[in-house]
Amino acid sequence: MNAGWPVELREGEITLRPIRVRDQRSWQEVSRRNRDWLRRWEATVPPAPAGTSAGTRPTYRQMVRYLRNEAAAGRMLPFVVLYGDQLVGQLTVGGITWGSMCSANVGYWIDETAAGRGIMPTAVALAVDHCFRALGLHRIEVCIRPENRPSRRVVEKLGFREEGTRPRYLHIDGDWRDHLVYALTVEEVPEGMLTRWRSIRSGHRHGN
Question: Cβ-count burial of 54 within 10 angstroms (0-12 exposed, 13-18 middle, 19+ buried)?
Fold first, then answer.
């Protein structure tokens, strides 16, 4: 059982909560409306070897069932992102590893109409603080395609370190794609990620 799950995290109008089966209509509507915006960054299934059957994209219910099972096993935290009461995106903490590593990775997407408002940096900050403080993880990693400037700006605003490139790391939009690696350890944010982000936003509002 995952001691850090289920959980709801909130900052102002922004909420992270577990994805639910009953989110299907809202989730599919946002996904459908943002198909062109998101397609370039979406994971795809590589061609199957000759003589084997190719994997198929899961249904929404199959996806939620898988995510909930992974969360129950302590390997994942699958959130939807709400702005007010509107579903505007998804954030998943995955690859949770314990032992001598105590690490995880974070992936996310947001509705194009909600981008640029500080929603996703806030969501990432909430998730990172939960991972470091409630779960006791030591390192968080985010891997992003070099061409995905909006996604890169999210982690750069929060002060993640760029560590280098992983060539042909993930199958995205029909091919194996290079990814930049961004990372952060708990020692680098002793004040907490959300506190750091509040300070950054306050400085921007005051013209610093």
Answer: exposed
Q: What are the backbone dihedrals phi and psi of residue 148, each rounded to the nearest 5 degrees, phi first? A: -90, 75
Is 185 a member of any domain?
A: yes
Query: How many C-beta atoms surround the C-beta of residue 205 within 10 A?
Result: 8
CATH of the domain at 194: 3.40.630.30
The pTM for the full model equals 0.93
H-only helix segments in 17-148: 24-33, 35-39, 60-72, 119-129
pLDDT in tens, 29-73: 999 999 998 888 888 888 867 655 556 778 999 999 999 999 999
And the tokens for 23?
């989110």
- Our count of domains for the chain comes to 1
Pick from 81, 87, 77, 102: nearest CA to 30 = 87
